[in-house]
Amino acid sequence: xxxxxxxxxxxxxxxxxxxxxxxxxxxxxxxxxxxxxxxxxxxxxxxxxxxxxxxxxxxxxxxxxxxxxxxxxxxxxxxxxxxxxxxxxxxxxxxxxxxxxxxxxxxxxxxxxxxxxxxxxxxxxxxxxxxxxx
Length: 134
Hints:
By secondary structure, this protein is mainly alpha-helical. The protein has a single domain (2-132), classed as Rossmann fold (3-Layer(aba) Sandwich), CATH 3.40.50. 54% of the residues lie in helices and 10% in strands.
C-alpha cells in the first residue's frame, strides 16, 4: 500500500516545533528510506513546504534546499519527475528567482522548450530560455 505524505508531516520533521511529531515523522521517513513504507506526495506539497519554510519560518533558499532535497530524493517516496527538483532548487538558489518560476523554467528546459510568453523578467536570468511578451 502506498500512503500519501502531506506537507505538515514534512514541516513537523524539519522545524521540530513539536518534538513528538518530529520524532514520529523522522521514523516514518526512515521507514520509507529503508523500503519498509511506501509513500507518495505531490508537487503541491513541495511548493507548500518551500513557501512555508521561506515565508513563515524565514529560512534562506540554500537552507530550504538542504532540508527538502534529501526528503524529495528518499528511495521510498514517489513523486513524479522527482529528478527535476534538483534543477529547480539550483535555479531557485543561484538565480534568486521565485520557486514557481524556477520550477517552470526547469520543466521547460527538460522538455527542450526555449521560449516563454511572460511579463516576468525572472525568466531573463535563466540560460537557455528566451522570454517573449505577447
